[in-house]
Amino acid sequence: MRGVDYNATHMVKAVKGLDLNPNAYTYVTVDGKQRRIADSNKDDSIDWFAAWAAAQIDALGTRPKVLLPIPSSKTIANSPETYRTFMLAEAIAKRVKSCTISSALRFVEARPSSREEGGSRDPKVLYPNMTLIKTLPVGQIVLIDDVMTSGGHLIASSWKLADKNRSPALALACGRSIDVQLDDPFSVPAEEVDIARQDDDEDIFG
Fold first, then answer.
1. pLDDT, position 104
2. Whole-number pLDDT of residue 180
3. Could you tell me which of 34, 100, 175, 179 has the fewest CB atoms within 10 Å of its CB?
4. Closest CA relative to residue 75, chosen from 110, 23, 103
5. Residue 27's beta-bridge partner residues?
6. Sites in the chain below the pLDDT cut of 70
7. Using an 8 Å Cβ cutoff, are 14 and 42 in contact?
8. What is the DSSP code (8-state) at residue 137?
């Protein structure tokens, strides 16, 4: 792993709130300034990500925005609003005008995490286990996640929004898992994700 790859990985782990090696640290450039990331200040990375994310949201225009955090695998209807992606959305909302946060998207029951417990990333498995527990506010919906791997959680979330005749205008994540080494791992390009529903699959969509 190159130094720049380690730096990017360290940053993403910090945003996710994972434990970092207490004897290790790295520096990343945020807004033109060198920022030191260590386990002791990893939560500062939330604000650094939020500054970047807010700029992407502002580029959508002046219409009201609704930040919709993608729930963690253990986030169900009665879970408090303390899950990591909600914290990311809170930090972003402070920097965006005409912006609200909705914690409406939840899992029906706690699921095994895909990273640690081998849980599924298949949107056809995730979708029927997701629910919207409240009415979504008016505005452009922006999905917020910490890391995008296969895109399964994002796609399943979009399908659940489609049930209410809503769709995301944008989805943002701090990290992207890919199988190729980039010259600059901090410059992963924007990509189009196919969120089209297979409405002929009655087992999934009823």
1. 97
2. 83
3. 179
4. 110
5. 36
6. 199-206
7. yes
8. P
Q: Which pLDDT score is estimated for 30?
A: 77
**CB 156 within 8 Å of CB 123:** yes
Q: What is the pLDDT of residue 116?
A: 82
Structure token digits, residue 157: 């979330």
Q: Which residue has the tokens 């990500």?
A: 49
Q: Give the pLDDT confidence score for residue 125 in this predicted structure.
A: 95
Is residue 5 situated within a structural domain?
no
CATH number of the structural domain spanning residue 90: 3.40.50
Q: How far apart are CA 125 and CA 140, in angstroms?
A: 26
The answer as to whether 190 is a domain residue is yes
The answer to whether residue 81 is domain-embedded is yes
Q: If you search the block for the tokens 């995490």, which residue do you land on?
A: 113
Residue 10's DSSP bridge partners are: none
Which H or E element spans position 5? helix 3-16
DSSP state of 19: -
Query: Could you give the number of structural domains in the chain?
Result: 1
Residues with Cβ within 8 Å of 11's Cβ and at least 6 positions away in sequence, in order, are 26, 28, 37, 45, 48, 174, 175
> Taking phi first (over 0 means left), then psi (-120 to 50 degrees means alpha), and beta for anything else, what does residue 61 get?
left
pLDDT given at position 160: 97
- Tell me the CA distances in angstroms from 37 to 23, 54, 56, one per residue in order: 11, 21, 23
- Tell me the one-letter amino acid at 176: R
The pair of structure tokens assigned to 45 is 């990375």
What amino acid is encoded at 67 in this protein? L
In total, the chain counts a number of residues equal to 206
Residue 157, in any domain of the structure:
yes
- Which residues lie across from 29 on neighbouring strands? 34
